[in-house]
Every structure is written in structure tokens, then in C-alpha cells.
Design brief:
The chain contains eight helices and ten strands. It has 243 residues and is α+β, with helices and mostly antiparallel strands. Helix 1 packs across helix 3 and helix 2 (36-43) packs across helix 3 (47-59). The N and C termini lie far apart (49 Å). Bound molecules: 2-amino-2-deoxy-6-O-phosphono-alpha-D-glucopyranose.
């Protein structure tokens, strides 16, 4: 209930109560929230106060509004911790979800200048170019375009890419993946991303560019991914170095 004598602002108390209902599963994604008027009566506060609480929860991504329909509970974001190098398959399994892939294209090409530079190879060296939609419990989460050095990652097959690339590298080829560098930026979805992810063109997405290296320091993949921005949250731990 609301404690009007508390120094904690009332709108904040309402926010916390709604959040607790979401976290406990009493309010599920897609559920429609009671109206501002109903909340105002229930908590015996003004509609303005309720509106402030709901606005904050919308801005924080817990709720979303649909014009003329009401306010609904949003899907929970995937939290991705930015330390430790994991694969998509591992990330989904760790969340108790079933990973899946839809392969758009699988080609063995000659590296162009840009790819050759990125993957430390010569122009016309063989490179796999693979486009996959990555799924979690059959739902599209990301569109991924991978450029993989065919000199390092030999005999890659479509079947292997239907499973896990990292698993193929480590278990089938017995190679060791060492580290990756990753760039993350927000961008509007283009036609291709919109179609693959089932969103409208222009919807914000997170673009991630990962370059990964084998134990001997050679880059084996450059991967461009487009993630649903409203489903992902990246969490980094930052330590201030002591001099
Ligand atoms: C993530 C990375 C990719 C990497 C992939 C491997 O999605 N962004 O750079 O290639 O994981 O995942 P998996 O082993 O499931 O194919």
C-alpha cells in the first residue's frame, strides 16, 4: 500500500509496487494495466501522480502504451553481461531458452579489400559469408552477418551454422578462441533488418560489430549483428584502476 507519511515520493512508491507485480509474475508481458483513474482510486492519490509513475515505467521500458488501447506490460529485456566471451547459443541456454537459427544465405566467397583488412588476409582469400536470424524459443532476436576466414575455419557447413559456430570451432576443429573486440551502437532498422526481425523500418536497433581471435592471435570472424533494442540490455562492470 501507499504510505503518505513516508519521505519516499508517492509516485515512486507506485512505481515500485507495479515493478514488484511484474517481477513476481503477477503482471505478465502483454497484460493490460488498470486505467490511471482506477489506480488513482485504489491508491487514493491524484491521477497526475499515477501518470508520473506510469510515465517513468514506460521510459524505463517496463511498460508500453498503445494509442486508444491502454498501457501494457513490456517483455523483459535480456541482460547481457559484458565480460567473458560467450556465444549466442551459450547466452540463450544460460537463460533457459532454446537457441535456434534461420539461415538466409551461406556462401564461400573471395575476400574483398575491406574483409581482407579486417580478417588480416589477402584479397581473394576464401571467406564464408553467412546470414542467420538468431532465435530464442523460436522468436527472432538478432540478424547476424558473419564473415569467417575459410583458411582458419575449415570445412564449415550450413549444418554446423544451424547449431553453434563456437562449438564447431572448439569441439570439431579443436581450436581455441581467445578474445573478441566489440563495438555497440544504436541505429534505425533498414529494410533487411526490419524484415528479418519482424519490426517496422526505422525502429531502433542495436548494431554490434564483433571481431574474434584465435589463440595464435589470428582474427577468424567479423560479425555484424542487429539486435532488437527493446529486448536487450548490456551490463558492464568497470573497475577504476588504482595507480
Ligand atoms: C554471438 C556473436 C557472434 C558469434 C556468435 C557465435 O552472436 N555476436 O560474433 O559468431 O555469438 O554463436 P554460436 O556459437 O551460437 O553460433
Amino acid at each position: 500500500m501507499i504510505d503518505k507519511s513516508s519521505p519516499i515520493p508517492i509516485y515512486y512508491q507506485i512505481e515500485e509496487q507495479i515493478k514488484a507485480l511484474i517481477e513476481s509474475g503477477k503482471l505478465k508481458s502483454g497484460d493490460c494495466l488498470p486505467s490511471e483513474r482506477e489506480y488513482a482510486e485504489k491508491f487514493k492519490v491524484s491521477r497526475m501522480t499515477v501518470r508520473q509513475a506510469i510515465n517513468n515505467l514506460v521510459n524505463d521500458g517496463f511498460l508500453y502504451r498503445e494509442k486508444g488501447k491502454g498501457t501494457f506490460v513490456a517483455q523483459k529485456k535480456f541482460e547481457q553481461v559484458l565480460h567473458g566471451l560467450t556465444s549466442f547459443t551459450e547466452d540463450m541456454k544460460a537463460r533457459g531458452l532454446t537457441p535456434g537459427n534461420r539461415i538466409f544465405s551461406f556462401e564461400l566467397l573471395f575476400a574483398n579489400e575491406l574483409i581482407a583488412k579486417q580478417l588480416d588476409m589477402t584479397v581473394r582469400d576464401p571467406v564464408y559469408q553467412i546470414e542467420r536470424i538468431r532465435l530464442a524459443d523460436n522468436e527472432p532476436i538478432a540478424l547476424e552477418t558473419s564473415f569467417i576466414s575459410a583458411n582458419l575455419i575449415k570445412d564449415l557447413t550450413k549444418e554446423a551454422m544451424h547449431q553453434s559456430l563456437y562449438n564447431y570451432i572448439e569441439e570439431e576443429l579443436n581450436l581455441r578462441i581467445d578474445y573478441s573486440t566489440q563495438e555497440i551502437e544504436a541505429a534505425p532498422a533498414g529494410d533487411k533488418e526490419a524484415e528479418a526481425l519482424g519490426i517496422k523500418k526505422g525502429t531502433p536497433i542495436l548494431k554490434i560489430l564483433r571481431k574474434s581471435y584465435l589463440e595464435d592471435g589470428k582474427p577468424f570472424e567479423m560479425v555484424k549483428s542487429a539486435y532488437l533494442a527493446d529486448r536487450y540490455k548490456f551490463i558492464a562492470t568497470m573497475k577504476r584502476s588504482t595507480k
